[in-house]
Write a structure and sequence with these properties.
alpha/beta; D-Maltodextrin-Binding Protein, domain 2; Alpha-Beta Plaits; 5-stranded mixed sheet; globular
């Protein structure tokens, strides 16, 4: 049986990645000490690795496909195909940022103020390109972790990743500039996508993962509406195309269902009730394929 070797991120992105795959239909399980998850798909062989390393393994062909960060793919300069941007992170569904940060009382206010300074970061190559773009010469040192504590005694500034900014604020750091934005991406080996079976498997995975991401921000609304109030109700109902309306055994009533933004339901449902809708249900959905 053919199989696809899939690389998955170990660490902070692991749980959110497993959750996304689970919604899309793939259930991965792994013990705390293992790097080889089991999955309910005999056509997939999965391996865990740090996101920092995954693009290198895909480039070499050790893995056919991987889920990793665009930042690490660019940092490594890996010759891989970015198949899809999958915008989710550890805590939110927003891009993450690599930011230039300094202590609150630092005199560094702009990239130009970095001239001759020391910067600590995990993304040495990205920072080097940033400095080159701004025409600044500075010493960039690789940080093995705990980057926030490197300033002010070990470095003048840091470039660190942030999703919500809470860790930077807790360490009394001030953001000077955004060096780069990053999202989670699906990457593939160039030779792998030349294999028709592997290409079809990769495409199927991406379709379902995108559908699961779309569904995270949507909800299914089902309700019953009197036929004489139906037009009013349909006017306030958003949908992907148009709401589905079905007849009930009692011809004075109809059954209506539609997909809406989950955040809109707190105001939409009371309005539907005011317009005479009954039996209103809000249901979560796992996958939406537009």
């Amino acid at each position: 049986m053919p199989e696809l070797c899939l690389g998955l991120p170990k660490g902070s992105l692991q749980d959110s990645t497993f959750s996304l795959f689970r919604a899309a239909g793939w259930d991965f399980n792994v013990s705390s000490r293992s790097y080889y998850p089991s999955v309910n798909d005999p056509e997939i062989r999965a391996m865990l690795a740090r996101p920092q390393e995954l693009s290198r393994y895909v480039e070499r062909g050790v893995m056919d496909m991987a889920i990793t960060g665009l930042d690490w793919t660019l940092e490594n300069g890996s010759d891989v195909l970015v198949m899809e941007r999958l915008v989710y992170a550890k805590a939110t569904n927003q891009p993450v940022r690599w930011v230039l940060a300094v202590p609150e009382d630092s005199d560094i206010r702009s990239p130009a103020d970095l001239q001759g300074r020391v910067i600590s970061t995990e993304v040495v190559n990205l920072v080097g390109k940033y400095l080159e773009k701004h025409g600044v010469s500075a010493r960039v040192e690789f940080s093995h972790g705990a980057t926030e504590v490197k300033v002010p005694h070990l470095a003048d500034a840091i470039v660190d990743i942030t999703e919500t900014g809470s860790s930077l604020r807790a360490n009394r750091l001030r953001v000077v500039d955004t060096v780069a934005e990053s999202v989670t991406v699906a990457i593939a080996n160039r030779q792998a996508v030349m294999d028709p079976w592997k290409k079809a498997k990769i495409d199927a995975l991406i379709v379902m993962l995108k559908g699961a991401l779309t569904a995270r921000e949507k909800a299914l609304i089902k309700l019953n509406a009197r036929r004489d109030r139906l037009a009013e109700i349909l006017r306030v109902l958003p949908s992907l195309n148009s709401p589905t309306v079905n007849e009930l055994s009692n011809r004075e009533w109809t059954a209506v269902e539609t997909i809406v933004d989950a955040g809109a339901t707190r105001s939409l449902i009371p309005e539907l009730k005011r317009l005479g809708a009954e039996g209103i249900l809000q249901l979560s959905v796992n996958v939406i394929i537009p």
